[in-house]
Amino acid sequence: MCTLEKRGDLFFLTLTGDGEHRLGPAVIDSILSALSEAAAQSTPGSVLITTSQGKFFSNGFDLAWAQTAGSPAEARERLHGMVASFRPVVAALLSLPMPTIAAVQGHAAASGLLLALSHDYILLRSDRGLLYMPELDIGLPMPDYFSAMGRAKIASSSAMRDIFLQSAKLKGEEAVRMGVAYSAHDGEEALSEASIRLGEQLAKRKWQGKVYAEIRKSLYPDVCSMLGLPHKVATPKL
């Protein structure tokens, strides 16, 4: 599950507990509810920081829950349901009226990596943070919006190849060099301090949230179209 806390201009969305933060139906609903609450409370200068407790940022969909279904067909139906229900989370982050920061202090794998990529900035722990898209390794096809997000957020074709076609496991400094992460930091405290510092720097700009969201969506037209997010031209304040 997750919690949402507001401290000044900063919203902190925290995946709670010491587990793998698997994205099953209840966790997905909890994240979506927190994002909706943050959007409703946003003001000029708001910033979202998403982080987690324990070793993992998120280890992806709850495959163990899917496999407890009564038959292979029912297991596939559960997996497809998680893929479908996670789309609105990605859409909510791309349309959130504020800058977003993912403070990845542990493993972010599969849909957990997509959760991180859906933020404007990814900050990693250099000693424990890990970005990993394991679909090839576990024999699962790639959902269409996963690939679209990769194309939108990862500029280097060689980085795309390594992440999606080699299932490379990227640690902090390597992820920064490849342009996937914004920065890497030694230890949980340093990561937290860097995330808050960046959040406060962004908050000082006091940007209009709706304008920020529309500009963000304009940068990623393909994935936004796939997610059904309309792009509106904001009326400037003169």
Automatic annotation (TrEMBL):
What is stated as this protein's family in its record? Belongs to the enoyl-CoA hydratase/isomerase family.
Q: Quick check: keyword Lipid metabolism in the entry?
A: yes
- Per the UniProt record, one Pfam family is ECH_1
Q: Which residues form a coiled coil?
A: none
What does the record give as the reaction this protein catalyses?
a (3Z)-enoyl-CoA = a 4-saturated (2E)-enoyl-CoA; a (3E)-enoyl-CoA = a 4-saturated (2E)-enoyl-CoA
- BP-aspect Gene Ontology terms: fatty acid beta-oxidation
Instruction: Give the record's pathway.
Output: Lipid metabolism; fatty acid beta-oxidation
Q: Does the keyword Lipid metabolism apply?
A: yes
UniProt keywords (A-Z) are: Fatty acid metabolism, Lipid metabolism
The EC code for this enzyme is 5.3.3.8
Lineage, broadest ranks: Eukaryota, Viridiplantae, Streptophyta, Embryophyta, Tracheophyta
**InterPro entries reported for this sequence:** ClpP/crotonase-like_dom_sf, Enoyl-CoA_hydra/iso
EC primary class: isomerase
What name has this protein been given in UniProt?
Delta(3)-Delta(2)-enoyl-CoA isomerase
Q: What GO CC annotations are associated with the protein?
A: peroxisome
User: What GO MF terms are annotated?
Assistant: delta(3)-delta(2)-enoyl-CoA isomerase activity
